[in-house]
């Protein structure tokens, strides 16, 4: 199987609750290699652009407010089958539906404040990684 990449954000609630270390432990234990990583904060325009696909949804305003209210950890991760394996590791969008042991089951508060982001396709992983990182920041 070829090695490929996904993009993740540890969302503001994860940083507020002091869960960066615990979540990175789970990511490391699952075999992902860190290609790029930083603490950063999205502006309103950043969040609106990043989540543009959701701009007609009723929760869009709430989502932008949540994602901009504090710092996030942005990272690019590498592993075989990275996108699908990472989506499995984080679990369903709503933590109530997430499988036991998944990051969202363990660390998310609600369907909106759900601890982590994971890209949903190889194409989006590349777009989202490039949104946050310059080529010289990827290793
Ligand atoms: P995903 O993050 O699991 O791929 P998406 O459907 O792409 O889920 O939604 C993006 C983000 O928007 C979610 O991670 C969550 O933070 C937020 N979100 C999704 N659905 C709802 C909802 O019904 N109410 C409030 N926030 C939501």
From TrEMBL:
<feature type="binding site">
    <location>
        <position position="104"/>
    </location>
    <ligand>
        <name>ATP</name>
    </ligand>
</feature>
<feature type="binding site">
    <location>
        <position position="93"/>
    </location>
    <ligand>
        <name>ATP</name>
    </ligand>
</feature>
<keyword id="KW-0418">Kinase</keyword>
<feature type="binding site">
    <location>
        <position position="87"/>
    </location>
    <ligand>
        <name>ATP</name>
    </ligand>
</feature>
<keyword id="KW-0547">Nucleotide-binding</keyword>
<keyword id="KW-0808">Transferase</keyword>
<feature type="active site" description="Pros-phosphohistidine intermediate">
    <location>
        <position position="117"/>
    </location>
</feature>
<keyword id="KW-0067">ATP-binding</keyword>
<keyword id="KW-0460">Magnesium</keyword>
<comment type="subunit">
    <text>Homotetramer.</text>
</comment>
<dbReference type="GO" id="GO:0004550">
    <property type="term" value="F:nucleoside diphosphate kinase activity"/>
</dbReference>
<feature type="domain" description="Nucleoside diphosphate kinase-like">
    <location>
        <begin position="3"/>
        <end position="137"/>
    </location>
</feature>
<dbReference type="Pfam" id="PF00334">
    <property type="entry name" value="NDK"/>
</dbReference>
<comment type="similarity">
    <text>Belongs to the NDK family.</text>
</comment>
<dbReference type="InterPro" id="IPR036850">
    <property type="entry name" value="NDK-like_dom_sf"/>
</dbReference>
<dbReference type="InterPro" id="IPR001564">
    <property type="entry name" value="Nucleoside_diP_kinase"/>
</dbReference>
<feature type="binding site">
    <location>
        <position position="11"/>
    </location>
    <ligand>
        <name>ATP</name>
    </ligand>
</feature>
<comment type="function">
    <text>Major role in the synthesis of nucleoside triphosphates other than ATP. The ATP gamma phosphate is transferred to the NDP beta phosphate via a ping-pong mechanism, using a phosphorylated active-site intermediate.</text>
</comment>
<keyword id="KW-0597">Phosphoprotein</keyword>
<feature type="binding site">
    <location>
        <position position="114"/>
    </location>
    <ligand>
        <name>ATP</name>
    </ligand>
</feature>
<keyword id="KW-0479">Metal-binding</keyword>
<feature type="binding site">
    <location>
        <position position="59"/>
    </location>
    <ligand>
        <name>ATP</name>
    </ligand>
</feature>
<protein>
    <recommendedName>
        <fullName>Nucleoside diphosphate kinase</fullName>
        <ecNumber>2.7.4.6</ecNumber>
    </recommendedName>
</protein>
<dbReference type="InterPro" id="IPR034907">
    <property type="entry name" value="NDK-like_dom"/>
</dbReference>
<keyword id="KW-0546">Nucleotide metabolism</keyword>
<keyword id="KW-0963">Cytoplasm</keyword>
